[in-house]
Design a protein that fits this description.
314 residues; alpha/beta; Malonyl-Coenzyme A Acyl Carrier Protein, domain 2; Alpha-Beta Plaits; 2 domains; six-stranded mixed β-sheet; four-stranded antiparallel β-sheet; 14 helices; 51% helix; globular
């Protein structure tokens, strides 16, 4: 094994029941849920364990829920002696990566992402913005089509460069709808409007980025203990000042996930553990580079598989 990367998921990975089996086995899971509840002033643990799903998928709840689960997975791996050389996270997941690298205190991060969710939702009224997944078209075709639609129908842009053949667009409702039609005509295998309540990572999120900057001024941001790759530019960062600037920009800028994975690979990371709910990033890795070894830790079953793998390679 060369170098190990931990990657942390973003929104959409949440499921009711997540974290329950970790709490039954690990004290660190109980402690972190308790700390999250204290920071938020309500029980995110109860919401994770019992739902309802509609409450859990509200972005101001989803973000702290996934961050808490991701940090728990990271801490459990650490207890088993497995620690990364580098980390990255998709959108919200970048905050989980920064907690893992000791840049942010856990409770500060929980409250930050809760507010980040609120600010993103407030930036564009419900019904006035949206997102769509575009499958099977080159990025440059999507970018070009979005630029044309913005000039004629409404603002829209490519915002998540997830893996070859899968890109997400976001913008005004009219812009997204017009872009979906244009991209189907351009030969997209699929162009599907996503069930989300805001155009995340588009320039329409600038008001959220400004509010987030004020909140980031209130918390301690430290240099990273190991490199964390930034969504906004796909570069490895360790300096507190640069990390803070990137987090502000990230709210209203595209997630360059392909660039992030390429940067981690160039750093020497050939093995990846997705820490937190779901295995979306494992799937992206396969599309970006089949040679990368990817596994996930979201519950006791996946933890056992991952620990067994490390026992074999050590």
């Amino acid at each position: 094994m060369n170098k190990l990367a931990f990657v942390f998921p973003g929104q959409g990975a949440q499921t009711v029941g997540m974290g329950k089996d970790f709490c039954e086995k690990y004290d660190v899971a109980k402690r972190l849920f308790k700390e999250a509840d204290e920071a938020l002033g309500y029980s995110i643990q109860k919401m994770c364990f019992e739902g309802p799903a509609d409450d859990l998928k509200l972005t101001a709840n989803t973000q702290p829920a996934i961050l808490t689960m991701s940090v728990i997975a990271n801490e459990i791996l650490k207890e088993h002696g497995i620690q990364p050389d580098i980390a990255g996270g998709h959108s919200l997941g970048e905050y989980s990566a920064l907690v893992a690298a000791d840049v942010l205190n856990f409770q500060d991060a929980v409250l930050l992402v809760h507010k980040r969710g609120q600010f993103m939702q407030e930036a564009v009224p419900v019904g006035e913005g949206g997102m769509a997944a575009i499958i099977g078209l080159a990025d440059e075709v999507i970018v070009d089509a979005c630029e044309k639609v913005t000039r004629s129908a409404g603002e829209v842009q490519a915002v998540n460069f997830n893996c070859p053949g899968q890109t997400v667009i976001a913008g005004s409702t009219k812009g997204v709808e017009a872009a979906v039609e244009a991209l189907k005509e351009a030969g997209a295998k699929k162009a599907v409007v996503l069930p989300v309540s805001a155009p995340f990572h588009s320039t329409l999120m600038k008001p959220a980025a400004e509010k987030l900057a004020a909140e980031l001024d209130k918390v301690e941001i430290r240099d990273a203990k190991f490199p964390v790759v930034a969504n906004v530019n796909g570069k490895l960062e360790q300096k507190a000042g640069e990390i803070k600037e990137n987090l502000v920009a990230q709210a209203a800028s595209p997630v360059k996930w392909i660039d992030c994975v390429i940067a981690m690979r160039e750093f020497g990371a050939d093995t990846y553990v997705e820490a937190g709910p779901g295995k979306t990033l494992c799937g992206f890795n396969k599309r970006i580079d089949k040679a990368l070894v990817s596994m996930n830790v979201e519950n006791m079953e996946s933890l056992k598989k991952t620990l067994d793998y490390f026992k074999e390679v050590r």
